[in-house]
Protein backbone atom coordinates (compact mmCIF):
# COMPACT_ATOMS: atom_id res chain seq x y z
CA UNK A 1 0.00 0.00 0.00
CA UNK A 2 1.19 3.53 -0.68
CA UNK A 3 -0.06 6.38 1.45
CA UNK A 4 -1.88 9.44 0.18
CA UNK A 5 0.46 12.38 0.59
CA UNK A 6 -1.32 15.18 2.45
CA UNK A 7 -0.16 18.29 0.61
CA UNK A 8 0.24 20.88 3.36
CA UNK A 9 1.79 23.37 0.98
CA UNK A 10 -1.25 23.41 -1.31
CA UNK A 11 -3.66 23.41 1.66
CA UNK A 12 -1.78 26.33 3.23
CA UNK A 13 -1.97 28.27 -0.04
CA UNK A 14 -5.78 27.84 0.02
CA UNK A 15 -5.96 29.01 3.65
CA UNK A 16 -3.84 32.08 2.80
CA UNK A 17 -6.17 32.88 -0.13
CA UNK A 18 -9.15 32.81 2.24
CA UNK A 19 -7.26 35.01 4.70
CA UNK A 20 -6.43 37.47 1.89
CA UNK A 21 -10.11 37.65 0.89
CA UNK A 22 -11.13 38.36 4.47
CA UNK A 23 -8.46 41.03 4.81
CA UNK A 24 -9.73 42.67 1.64
CA UNK A 25 -13.30 42.72 2.99
CA UNK A 26 -12.13 44.18 6.32
CA UNK A 27 -10.51 47.02 4.37
CA UNK A 28 -13.29 47.75 1.91
CA UNK A 29 -16.23 47.29 4.31
CA UNK A 30 -14.71 48.62 7.55
CA UNK A 31 -11.48 50.47 6.68
CA UNK A 32 -9.51 48.13 8.95
CA UNK A 33 -6.13 46.61 8.13
CA UNK A 34 -5.07 43.74 10.41
CA UNK A 35 -1.54 44.08 11.81
CA UNK A 36 0.87 41.43 13.08
CA UNK A 37 3.94 42.29 15.15
CA UNK A 38 6.75 39.76 15.38
CA UNK A 39 9.41 40.17 18.05
CA UNK A 40 12.75 38.43 17.57
CA UNK A 41 15.38 38.53 20.28
CA UNK A 42 18.89 37.47 19.24
CA UNK A 43 20.23 35.91 16.09
CA UNK A 44 19.17 32.26 16.09
CA UNK A 45 19.48 31.38 12.36
CA UNK A 46 16.36 29.16 12.21
CA UNK A 47 14.30 31.84 14.01
CA UNK A 48 15.52 34.47 11.56
CA UNK A 49 14.33 32.33 8.63
CA UNK A 50 10.91 31.79 10.26
CA UNK A 51 10.49 35.49 11.07
CA UNK A 52 11.42 36.50 7.51
CA UNK A 53 8.96 34.11 5.94
CA UNK A 54 6.19 35.08 8.41
CA UNK A 55 6.73 38.76 7.56
CA UNK A 56 6.70 38.09 3.82
CA UNK A 57 3.46 36.10 3.94
CA UNK A 58 1.79 38.63 6.25
CA UNK A 59 2.37 41.31 3.62
CA UNK A 60 1.30 38.98 0.80
CA UNK A 61 -2.16 38.52 2.33
CA UNK A 62 -2.52 42.30 2.64
CA UNK A 63 -1.88 42.76 6.37
CA UNK A 64 0.53 45.09 8.13
CA UNK A 65 3.73 43.38 9.21
CA UNK A 66 5.86 44.93 11.93
CA UNK A 67 9.16 43.32 12.91
CA UNK A 68 11.07 44.18 16.08
CA UNK A 69 14.58 42.74 16.09
CA UNK A 70 16.26 43.06 19.46
CA UNK A 71 19.82 42.31 20.49
CA UNK A 72 20.53 38.96 22.16
CA UNK A 73 21.41 40.77 25.42
CA UNK A 74 18.17 42.80 25.56
CA UNK A 75 16.98 43.09 29.15
CA UNK A 76 13.72 41.55 30.31
CA UNK A 77 12.45 45.02 31.28
CA UNK A 78 13.06 46.36 27.76
CA UNK A 79 11.35 43.36 26.16
CA UNK A 80 8.34 43.64 28.50
CA UNK A 81 8.10 47.35 27.79
CA UNK A 82 8.01 46.70 24.01
CA UNK A 83 5.29 44.06 24.50
CA UNK A 84 3.31 46.53 26.63
CA UNK A 85 3.58 49.11 23.87
CA UNK A 86 2.33 46.56 21.28
CA UNK A 87 -0.49 45.46 23.63
CA UNK A 88 -1.70 49.07 23.64
CA UNK A 89 -1.25 49.74 19.92
CA UNK A 90 -4.70 49.66 18.22
CA UNK A 91 -3.09 49.01 14.81
CA UNK A 92 -1.57 45.75 16.08
CA UNK A 93 -4.00 42.82 16.39
CA UNK A 94 -1.52 39.96 16.76
CA UNK A 95 1.76 39.71 18.66
CA UNK A 96 4.19 36.85 18.26
CA UNK A 97 7.36 36.56 20.30
CA UNK A 98 9.62 34.16 18.43
CA UNK A 99 10.81 31.27 20.61
CA UNK A 100 13.22 30.14 21.88
CA UNK A 101 14.30 33.23 23.82
CA UNK A 102 17.86 33.74 25.07
CA UNK A 103 18.42 31.97 28.39
CA UNK A 104 18.46 35.11 30.58
CA UNK A 105 14.81 35.86 29.70
CA UNK A 106 11.93 34.18 31.54
CA UNK A 107 9.93 32.61 28.70
CA UNK A 108 6.76 32.06 30.75
CA UNK A 109 6.79 35.63 32.01
CA UNK A 110 7.26 37.00 28.51
CA UNK A 111 4.56 34.80 26.96
CA UNK A 112 2.09 35.77 29.69
CA UNK A 113 2.80 39.46 29.23
CA UNK A 114 1.23 39.42 25.75
CA UNK A 115 -2.44 40.49 25.90
CA UNK A 116 -4.39 37.20 25.57
CA UNK A 117 -6.60 38.62 22.82
CA UNK A 118 -3.47 39.47 20.76
CA UNK A 119 -1.71 36.18 21.57
CA UNK A 120 -1.92 34.70 18.06
CA UNK A 121 0.45 31.88 19.09
CA UNK A 122 -2.10 30.73 21.68
CA UNK A 123 0.58 30.20 24.35
CA UNK A 124 -0.75 32.60 27.02
CA UNK A 125 -1.96 30.78 30.10
CA UNK A 126 -5.50 32.19 29.57
CA UNK A 127 -5.67 30.74 26.08
CA UNK A 128 -4.29 27.42 27.30
CA UNK A 129 -7.03 27.34 29.95
CA UNK A 130 -9.76 28.33 27.50
CA UNK A 131 -8.67 25.61 25.05
CA UNK A 132 -8.51 23.04 27.85
CA UNK A 133 -12.07 23.84 28.91
CA UNK A 134 -13.42 23.91 25.36
CA UNK A 135 -14.02 27.67 25.27
CA UNK A 136 -13.31 30.17 22.50
CA UNK A 137 -9.57 30.87 22.54
CA UNK A 138 -6.55 31.52 20.35
CA UNK A 139 -5.45 28.07 19.22
CA UNK A 140 -1.70 27.36 18.78
CA UNK A 141 -0.86 27.48 15.08
CA UNK A 142 0.99 24.18 14.57
CA UNK A 143 -1.60 21.92 16.23
CA UNK A 144 -4.39 23.91 14.54
CA UNK A 145 -2.77 23.29 11.15
CA UNK A 146 -2.51 19.56 11.94
CA UNK A 147 -6.16 19.42 12.98
CA UNK A 148 -7.27 21.19 9.80
CA UNK A 149 -5.42 18.66 7.64
CA UNK A 150 -6.87 15.74 9.63
CA UNK A 151 -10.42 17.08 9.37
CA UNK A 152 -9.96 17.72 5.67
CA UNK A 153 -8.71 14.19 5.08
CA UNK A 154 -11.08 12.27 7.35
CA UNK A 155 -14.14 14.43 7.81
CA UNK A 156 -15.11 13.36 11.32
CA UNK A 157 -12.37 12.20 13.70
CA UNK A 158 -14.89 10.97 16.26
CA UNK A 159 -13.93 7.73 18.00
CA UNK A 160 -10.52 7.43 16.35
CA UNK A 161 -7.49 6.36 18.40
CA UNK A 162 -4.89 9.13 18.31
CA UNK A 163 -1.35 8.97 19.65
CA UNK A 164 0.58 12.21 20.02
CA UNK A 165 4.30 11.64 20.51
CA UNK A 166 5.65 14.66 22.41
CA UNK A 167 4.20 16.65 25.29
CA UNK A 168 5.53 20.17 24.72
CA UNK A 169 3.34 23.15 25.57
CA UNK A 170 3.54 24.44 22.01
CA UNK A 171 2.74 21.26 20.07
CA UNK A 172 2.08 18.00 21.94
CA UNK A 173 -0.28 19.15 24.71
CA UNK A 174 -2.48 21.50 22.63
CA UNK A 175 -2.58 18.89 19.84
CA UNK A 176 -3.92 16.36 22.31
CA UNK A 177 -6.55 18.85 23.53
CA UNK A 178 -7.72 19.53 19.99
CA UNK A 179 -7.98 15.83 19.16
CA UNK A 180 -9.90 15.25 22.38
CA UNK A 181 -12.18 18.14 21.40
CA UNK A 182 -12.88 16.26 18.16
CA UNK A 183 -13.76 13.15 20.19
CA UNK A 184 -10.64 11.08 19.53
CA UNK A 185 -9.38 8.70 22.20
CA UNK A 186 -6.05 10.35 22.88
CA UNK A 187 -2.77 9.01 24.22
CA UNK A 188 0.15 11.35 24.82
CA UNK A 189 3.52 9.61 24.59
CA UNK A 190 6.88 11.05 25.63
CA UNK A 191 10.46 10.07 26.44
CA UNK A 192 9.39 7.97 29.44
CA UNK A 193 6.63 6.07 27.63
CA UNK A 194 7.03 2.29 27.90
CA UNK A 195 6.77 0.19 24.73
CA UNK A 196 6.33 3.21 22.48
CA UNK A 197 6.19 1.04 19.36
CA UNK A 198 3.18 -0.88 20.76
CA UNK A 199 1.45 2.32 21.82
CA UNK A 200 1.89 3.83 18.35
CA UNK A 201 0.71 0.60 16.64
CA UNK A 202 -2.75 1.08 18.19
CA UNK A 203 -3.23 4.48 16.61
CA UNK A 204 -5.49 5.45 13.72
CA UNK A 205 -3.81 8.87 13.89
CA UNK A 206 -0.15 9.37 14.81
CA UNK A 207 1.14 12.89 15.42
CA UNK A 208 4.93 12.87 15.76
CA UNK A 209 6.26 16.00 17.51
CA UNK A 210 9.54 14.87 18.99
CA UNK A 211 12.45 16.56 17.24
CA UNK A 212 14.34 13.32 16.49
CA UNK A 213 15.12 12.67 12.84
CA UNK A 214 13.16 9.74 11.34
CA UNK A 215 12.54 8.20 14.77
CA UNK A 216 9.20 6.58 13.88
CA UNK A 217 9.70 3.63 11.51
CA UNK A 218 7.01 2.14 9.28
CA UNK A 219 6.69 -1.01 11.38
CA UNK A 220 5.27 1.10 14.26
CA UNK A 221 2.40 2.23 12.02
CA UNK A 222 -0.95 0.42 11.88
CA UNK A 223 -1.76 -0.26 8.21
CA UNK A 224 -3.95 2.54 6.88
CA UNK A 225 -3.25 4.95 9.77
CA UNK A 226 -2.68 8.68 9.20
CA UNK A 227 0.74 10.06 10.10
CA UNK A 228 1.12 13.77 10.80
CA UNK A 229 4.80 14.59 10.98
CA UNK A 230 5.50 17.81 12.88
CA UNK A 231 9.26 17.32 13.18
CA UNK A 232 11.69 19.64 11.45
CA UNK A 233 15.18 18.19 11.66
CA UNK A 234 18.19 19.35 9.69
CA UNK A 235 20.53 16.46 8.91
CA UNK A 236 23.46 15.83 6.63
CA UNK A 237 23.10 12.92 4.20
CA UNK A 238 25.35 12.03 1.27
CA UNK A 239 27.26 15.25 1.92
CA UNK A 240 24.11 17.37 1.57
CA UNK A 241 21.96 19.22 4.10
CA UNK A 242 18.47 17.81 4.24
CA UNK A 243 15.27 18.54 6.13
CA UNK A 244 13.57 15.44 7.55
CA UNK A 245 10.68 14.81 9.90
CA UNK A 246 10.29 12.65 12.98
CA UNK A 247 8.80 9.85 10.89
CA UNK A 248 10.89 7.73 8.53
CA UNK A 249 8.96 8.85 5.46
CA UNK A 250 9.55 5.98 3.04
CA UNK A 251 8.84 3.12 5.44
CA UNK A 252 5.85 4.94 7.00
CA UNK A 253 4.39 5.85 3.58
CA UNK A 254 4.54 2.17 2.63
CA UNK A 255 2.02 1.20 5.38
CA UNK A 256 0.13 4.38 6.30
CA UNK A 257 -3.12 5.43 4.65
CA UNK A 258 -1.98 9.06 4.57
CA UNK A 259 1.10 11.01 5.61
CA UNK A 260 2.34 14.59 5.66
CA UNK A 261 5.75 15.15 4.04
CA UNK A 262 8.64 17.18 5.45
CA UNK A 263 9.07 19.75 4.05
CA UNK A 264 5.67 20.67 2.59
CA UNK A 265 3.36 19.33 5.30
CA UNK A 266 2.83 20.86 8.73
CA UNK A 267 5.34 23.73 8.30
CA UNK A 268 3.42 25.79 5.71
CA UNK A 269 0.14 25.19 7.60
CA UNK A 270 1.67 26.68 10.76
CA UNK A 271 2.29 30.04 9.08
CA UNK A 272 -1.11 30.00 7.33
CA UNK A 273 -2.78 29.44 10.72
CA UNK A 274 -0.79 32.32 12.23
CA UNK A 275 -2.23 34.62 9.56
CA UNK A 276 -5.72 33.21 10.10
CA UNK A 277 -5.39 33.75 13.87
CA UNK A 278 -4.37 37.38 13.26
CA UNK A 279 -7.51 38.00 11.20
CA UNK A 280 -9.58 36.31 13.92
CA UNK A 281 -7.97 38.54 16.57
CA UNK A 282 -8.65 41.62 14.44
CA UNK A 283 -12.32 40.68 13.95
CA UNK A 284 -12.77 40.02 17.68
CA UNK A 285 -11.10 43.35 18.56
CA UNK A 286 -13.56 45.15 16.30
CA UNK A 287 -16.67 43.17 17.25
CA UNK A 288 -16.97 41.73 13.71
CA UNK A 289 -17.89 38.24 12.52
CA UNK A 290 -14.90 35.91 12.59
CA UNK A 291 -13.75 33.79 9.65
CA UNK A 292 -15.12 30.22 9.78
P1 LIG B 1 10.25 19.70 22.49
O1 LIG B 1 11.70 19.39 22.48
O2 LIG B 1 9.74 20.80 23.32
O3 LIG B 1 9.44 18.38 22.88
C1 LIG B 1 9.78 17.15 22.38
C2 LIG B 1 8.94 16.07 23.01
O4 LIG B 1 9.36 14.81 22.48
C3 LIG B 1 9.08 15.99 24.52
O5 LIG B 1 7.80 15.88 25.12
C4 LIG B 1 9.91 14.73 24.75
O6 LIG B 1 9.56 14.01 25.90
C5 LIG B 1 9.53 13.91 23.54
N1 LIG B 1 10.59 12.93 23.22
C6 LIG B 1 11.91 13.17 23.11
N2 LIG B 1 12.56 12.03 22.84
C7 LIG B 1 11.63 11.06 22.78
C8 LIG B 1 11.67 9.68 22.55
N3 LIG B 1 12.82 9.05 22.32
N4 LIG B 1 10.53 8.98 22.59
C9 LIG B 1 9.36 9.60 22.82
N5 LIG B 1 9.25 10.92 23.05
C10 LIG B 1 10.36 11.64 23.03
O7 LIG B 1 9.87 19.91 20.95
P2 LIG B 1 8.64 20.71 20.25
O8 LIG B 1 7.35 20.14 20.66
O9 LIG B 1 8.88 22.15 20.37
O10 LIG B 1 8.93 20.33 18.73
C11 LIG B 1 8.91 18.99 18.27
C12 LIG B 1 9.36 18.95 16.83
O11 LIG B 1 8.44 19.69 16.05
C13 LIG B 1 10.73 19.60 16.57
O12 LIG B 1 11.35 18.90 15.49
C14 LIG B 1 10.38 20.99 16.11
O13 LIG B 1 11.37 21.54 15.25
C15 LIG B 1 9.13 20.72 15.34
N6 LIG B 1 8.22 21.86 15.22
C16 LIG B 1 7.69 22.10 13.99
C17 LIG B 1 6.82 23.12 13.79
C18 LIG B 1 6.23 23.30 12.44
O14 LIG B 1 5.75 24.36 12.12
N7 LIG B 1 6.25 22.28 11.58
C19 LIG B 1 6.45 24.04 14.88
C20 LIG B 1 6.99 23.66 16.17
C21 LIG B 1 7.86 22.61 16.31
P3 LIG B 1 9.85 14.55 27.40
O15 LIG B 1 8.80 15.59 27.64
O16 LIG B 1 9.68 13.34 28.23
O17 LIG B 1 11.24 15.11 27.38
TrEMBL record:
GO terms for cellular component: cytosol. InterPro entries: Aminoacid_DH-like_N_sf, NAD(P)-bd_dom_sf, THF_DH/CycHdrlase, THF_DH/CycHdrlase_cat_dom, THF_DH/CycHdrlase_CS, THF_DH/CycHdrlase_NAD-bd_dom. Its EC number is 1.5.1.5, 3.5.4.9. It comes from the Bacteria. GO terms for biological process: L-histidine biosynthetic process; methionine biosynthetic process; purine nucleotide biosynthetic process; tetrahydrofolate interconversion. Keywords: Amino-acid biosynthesis, Histidine biosynthesis, Hydrolase, Methionine biosynthesis, Multifunctional enzyme, NADP, One-carbon metabolism, Oxidoreductase, Purine biosynthesis. Coiled coil: none annotated. GO terms for molecular function: methenyltetrahydrofolate cyclohydrolase activity; methylenetetrahydrofolate dehydrogenase (NADP+) activity. Catalyzes the oxidation of 5,10-methylenetetrahydrofolate to 5,10-methenyltetrahydrofolate and then the hydrolysis of 5,10-methenyltetrahydrofolate to 10-formyltetrahydrofolate. Homodimer. HAMAP family: THF_DHG_CYH (MF_01576). This is Bifunctional protein FolD. The gene is folD.
